[in-house]
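Methods — Computational structure assignment.
A single polypeptide chain was analysed. Its primary sequence is given first, followed by the predicted tertiary structure written as C-alpha cells.
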Amino acid sequence: MADEEPPEEPGDEEPMPEPTGTHNDGGLVWGSQIITIGAKTYVADDISVQFPVKEITRTNENDVENGDVLIEGAFTGSATLQVLNSTTPVPPVAGAFTITSLNSVTLNCKVKEPGVKFGKGDEAKIPITFKKRHAGS
C-alpha cells in the first residue's frame, strides 16, 4: 500500500505548545511546573530531585573490594513555590502532588517540610522539601 504513512519514530511526537512569548527549538527542557496540592494550585520553581542509592561493598580477607550491590532508594527533592497573594496557604505536611521528570516520567510526591521565605527586595516564597509518595499514602 503505497499511500500508507510510515510508523512514527521515537521522538516524532507532536511538540508541546509553546507558552506565549517563548520560542523553543525543541532541544531544551526548561521552565517551572504547575502543581496542585490539595485544592490549591502553585507554580513550582527550582525543582530538584535526587535519586539516592545505598551501596553494600564486599571485601576479601585483605579488605580489597571484590563486589558490590547498589540499591535504589526512594527519591527526595525540593522546590520553591510562588506565593500568588497574601491568602496563599502553606501546603500541608504529606500534601500529595505530582511532578513530571525527564522523559515525561510522572513522580508521585508528598510534602515533607514546608516553609516560608521572605527576602529584602524579593517576593515571598514557599520552599518545600518532598519525598516519594508510596501507594496508599
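Note: The beta strands are 33-37, 40-50, 53-59, 65-72, 76-82, 96-100, 106-114, 125-132.
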